[in-house]
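Whiteboard transcription, Tuesday session. T.W. wrote the structure tokens on the left side:
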């Protein structure tokens, strides 16, 4: 059979969409729902993994659960009367997000195994060129919901590459590796470690926990949601709303102490000291676990099981931190040696160096990473000067210390939808914040930040840039952020009109 002549490879035409959303966690799925509700159906959700869920797909470590009550840590537009626990576990949260994708008709928009490798603003056409591992798109607007805690960070420890045992990060748990009877080193003592440690301690032969800084730990009021409560929330949805409103109010009331009056946290710190004293009898271990900074400065951990697990006979807390790996020997910063068969890193994520920043190129071809060399900055946590029609969901300074991130996500989605509908209403192609508006917003924000416990509490946390600037957290209540993102104020923006009409190749998803 004659073979057909080889044709030179033609560049594939890009499909044009109105909006390209990056990521399918709470942020990306929420964006999909809100776009559809606003009548915008011409969009794709580009996801590098093979399913939705983001954080709740990737973090499947033993004991993984939310630390904000489920009835608040969920979308306001998708209440779930079936939450099984007050702090539900990862499989239930992941299943919830799968249901959101189904219920709100997001499946036709989702493109899995599609990693965005470049987002480049085309000044001529006034749209974004979106390059991925599975094709390219052009888009009028891009929503970056690539996640604040999506790319694991493993510290550069000398000798780690030659460790003969198993090594993995908490967010990439290796379920094929059985920890039973093994000597396991847990590096890090943050929120993930506090859930992992009590889950694996009974199973392993030896658990060595490498701690740089101890966390303040408060008891967690976790319990099963009774069948009667579930029935009530399903039969009378107002009861679920009331529960959510109560949880919300309790957390909003705490904000003032974090952002304006850190001294008011003294009482909470006393509760945490008592919690430690009750759980840990050994004075030496207690001393290792007592923080030397004010409560709230680093994320407060909620756990009833963490201290008892650390006090168990097969557990050891190494307060000097991990300095070097020599074969199967882990050497702490004081020179102490510890044998291990496996190392689990609970060392967090690339946060202040948001990885998507390396892949976004705005006006004049400048990358977002270059733009943010001095620290991440945006207007209202959402838009960046020089990067028209790029909208962040969980952008700079939108993180929370003590409340549900879904509240912030929904505020940013209000802002996004208002921006897109405003663009249509005024016949504009794109908007970008003025440099002045962005500067003013950040000056005011950092002024407020200077009084917060995150700045004054005497700790070094993952919220801070190397120079100590906090570019991660929102220094206010979620209500004030909701107000700040209710509407786009065009006085803060430059309006861009497309110079020449651009032909649309095809519409991906019909209305
Ligand atoms: C273990 C853990 C527990 C947490 N618990 C809580 C809690 O109790 N309460 C709370 O408020 N917050 C909690 N958080 C914070 C949590 O990250 C947010 O609440 C929320 O889930 C973030 O959603 P997101 O959609 O913005 O990001 P993610 O859920 O991280 O989703 C981002 C998605 O973008 C995809 N992506 C990234 N880059 C690309 C690319 N280049 N191309 C294509 N796709 C890409 C990722 O694969 C991912 O699916 C927790 C975080 C962790 C890690």
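and on the right, the sequence the group agreed on:
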């Amino acid at each position: 059979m004659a073979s057909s002549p080889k044709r030179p490879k033609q560049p594939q035409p890009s499909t044009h969409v109105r909006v390209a959303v990056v990521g399918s966690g709470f942020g990306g799925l929420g964006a999909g729902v809100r776009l559809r509700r606003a009548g915008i159906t011409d969009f794709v959700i580009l996801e590098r993994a093979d399913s939705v869920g983001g954080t709740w797909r990737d973090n499947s470590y033993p004991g993984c659960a939310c630390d904000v009550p489920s009835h608040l840590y969920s979308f306001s537009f998708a209440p779930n009367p079936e939450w099984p626990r007050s702090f539900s576990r990862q499989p239930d949260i992941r299943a919830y997000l799968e249901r959101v994708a189904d219920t709100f008709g997001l499946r036709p928009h989702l493109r899995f195994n599609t990693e965005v490798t470049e987002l480049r603003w085309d000044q001529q056409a006034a749209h974004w060129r979106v390059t991925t591992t599975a094709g390219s798109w052009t888009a009028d607007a891009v929503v970056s919901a690539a996640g604040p805690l999506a790319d694991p960070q493993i510290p550069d420890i000398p000798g780690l590459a030659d460790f003969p045992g198993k090594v993995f990060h908490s967010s990439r748990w290796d379920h094929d590796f059985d920890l039973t009877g093994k000597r396991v080193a847990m590096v890090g003592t943050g929120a993930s470690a506090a859930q992992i440690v009590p889950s694996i301690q009974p199973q392993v032969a030896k658990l060595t926990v490498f701690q740089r800084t101890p966390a303040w730990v408060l008891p967690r009021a976790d319990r099963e949601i009774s069948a009667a409560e579930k029935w009530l929330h399903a039969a009378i949805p107002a009861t679920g709303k009331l529960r959510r409103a109560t949880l919300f109010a309790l957390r909003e009331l705490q904000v003032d102490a974090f952002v304006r009056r850190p001294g008011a946290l003294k009482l909470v710190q006393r509760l945490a000291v008592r919690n430690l004293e009750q759980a840990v009898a050994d004075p030496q271990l207690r001393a290792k676990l007592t923080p030397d900074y004010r409560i709230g400065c680093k994320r407060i951990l909620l756990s009833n099981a963490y201290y008892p697990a650390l006090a168990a006979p097969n557990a050891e807390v190494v307060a000097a931190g991990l300095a070097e790996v020599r074969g199967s020997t882990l050497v702490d910063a004081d020179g102490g040696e510890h044998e291990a068969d496996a190392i689990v890193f609970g060392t967090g994520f690339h946060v202040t160096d948001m990885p998507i920043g390396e892949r976004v190129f705005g006006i004049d071809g400048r990358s977002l990473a270059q733009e943010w060399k001095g620290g991440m900055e945006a207007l209202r946590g959402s838009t960046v000067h020089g990067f028209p029609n790029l909208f962040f969901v969980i952008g700079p300074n939108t993180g929370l210390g003590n409340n549900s991130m879904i509240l912030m996500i929904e505020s940013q989605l209000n802002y996004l939808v208002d921006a897109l509908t405003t663009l249509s209403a005024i016949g504009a192609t794109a908007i970008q914040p003025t440099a002045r508006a962005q500067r003013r917003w950040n000056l005011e924000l950092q002024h407020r930040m200077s009084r917060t416990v995150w700045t004054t509490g005497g700790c070094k946390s993952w919220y801070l840039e190397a120079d100590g600037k906090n570019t991660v957290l929102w220094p206010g209540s979620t209500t004030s952020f909701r107000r700040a993102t209710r509407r786009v104020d065009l006085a803060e923006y430059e309006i861009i009109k497309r110079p020449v009409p651009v032909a649309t190749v095809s519409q991906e998803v019909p209305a």
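Someone added at the bottom: The two ends are 45 Å apart (CA to CA).
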